[in-house]
Structures are given as structure tokens and as C-alpha cells.
Amino acid sequence: MCPKDRLFRGYIELELKLQEVDRVRMLYEKYLSWNAGNSAAWVRYAHVERSVGDMDRCRGIFEIAIGQEALEMPEILWKAYIDVEIEEEEYSRARDLYERLLKRSEHVKVWIAYARFEYGNADNGEDASSRLPAVRAIFSRGYDTLRRKGEKHDRAFLVETWREFEKSFGDKDSLAAVEAKIPRMVKKRRRVEGEESGGVGGMWEEYNDYLFPDDETERPNLKLFEMAHAWKEKMKLGLLDSDDEDEDSDAEDEGTVNFKAPVEGNAEGLDDGANSKRKRTDSEASDADEDS
């Protein structure tokens, strides 16, 4: 903590002891205008307003705080804001805050905290067991999100937490459904480029990888889909080639008819002419015999 931080905090503590709330507010305004990224200071300021019963100002301070572009440890601020709403039994507000937080950070710890909140804080006197579908929906959303992002370690951590939840509060079927998602851990090796190797060859290191059952099931289906798509593309090309061949064949057939028809006609005409000539020759020979 730098001297100016200690100075501000010292003055604020003094004014709080004197119950000079307006002076405390003034000091916090100056403090945070000087260091707007101090999440802990924003939280303390909001708690001052809550301590005097002004929840509107408390929420207003939290809203200004989470809107800051550069915050030191923003998770502290979000957690404090959510905890205040839970303590005030404003569960719908807390739920909205979790949803807003997930739009900014899809970290595995946020998903797990959200699921635990959903089970532990039922609305309007609901039985906790009635929240089970909502809890499972959050776990499922988190699992799908981490799967899409390729976060295998976080995904494994989430599904393990989900399994422990089902062991405690679920039934045999729900537990079996989650256990079907448990990954298999395998050791792999990868090449690591370093200065010692001069950037050539590198060194090998072992690491743990996770093989998820649904990924392994999906991979053959994906390969089959790719093969089917490739076959369809080839068929399209084949049909185009076949059409071209048919058109060429039709053109050749038309040319053959146009070319051969006259030839065949001429041949028939020549044959008829030869037959007529032979008939005349035979007739003339017969007349000559009669004259003789």
C-alpha cells in the first residue's frame, strides 16, 4: 500500500469513528477519483452506505465500480456485490448479477459459484430440492461453454464438482448421467522450444490431457459427416461431368444423323440406279435376240 492509500484510509477510519458520514463520502470520492481501479476501496465505500441503510446508494456505488475499465481484482468487487444481494435476500438481483458476470467472464469458478447459489438460495420459501433442475441447467451450460472453448482442465474440474453435487443431492439416474461425462486422464508428451536448445529440436515435457467420452463419441460421427460431405461434393462434380458427357454425346449423335442420312440416301439411290441400268440392259439384249 502506497503512502497515499494509507493516508486516505486513516482519514476515513477517523471520520467513521466520529460518524461523519458526509465527510466519509467526500473522502471516498477523492480517494476513488485518484485511484478508480481499487476494487477493495469501492467495496468498503458501498458497505458504508449499506451500514447507514441506504441500499440505493450502495447499489449505485457497486454499479459505478463494475463499470470501471481497469479494475484490480474485479472478482472481489463482483463477489461483494452478489453477497450483499444474497444477504438482503434479493435472490433475483443476485441471479441477474451472475448472468451479467458470465457475459464478462465464463470462468469455471463463476459457473460453480452460480450453481451453488441456485441450490442454497430458494425464492419465496421454496424447497431446495425444487431448485435441482435450475442447478443442473447451470452446470450443463457451464460444461457446454467450457467444451466449446476447449478448456479441458476447467471442464474436468466442473464435471467433478457436478458429480459431487449429484452424490449429495441427486439420485442414481442423475449421478449416472454425470459420471458418463467424466474424462479419462492420459499422459502425453509435447516438444518445448527453449533458449537452451537454440530454438532447434527443443525438449520434451510430459503433461496430463483429458479425453472426454462425448468428445470421443462425437469424433467418429464428425468423421462420417465429413466423408459424407466429401462424397456429396464428388457426386455433384460427377453429375456435372455426366451431364457434359451426355451433351457431347447428343451433339455427336446429331452430327452423325445429319452426316450419314444423305450418304445412306445416296447409297440407296445409287443402288436403285444400278438396278434400273441392269433391267434396261437385259431388256435390250432380249430385243436383239428377237430381231435375230
TrEMBL record:
Which family does the record claim for this protein? Belongs to the crooked-neck family.
Per the record, what is one GO cellular component?
U2-type catalytic step 2 spliceosome
InterPro entries for this protein: HAT, Syf1-like, TPR-like_helical_dom_sf
Name this polypeptide is given: Suppressor of forked domain-containing protein
List locations, semicolon-separated: Nucleus
The job of this chain, per UniProt, is described as: Involved in pre-mRNA splicing and cell cycle progression. Required for the spliceosome assembly and initiation of the DNA replication.
Query: Which Pfam families does the annotation name?
Result: HAT
- Composition-biased stretches (Acidic residues): 241-255
Assigned keywords, A-Z: mRNA processing, mRNA splicing, Nucleus, Repeat, Spliceosome
> Per the record's keyword annotation, is Magnesium included, yes or no?
no
Query: Region annotation Disordered: residue ranges?
Result: 241-292
Q: Which GO terms describe its biological process?
A: spliceosomal complex assembly
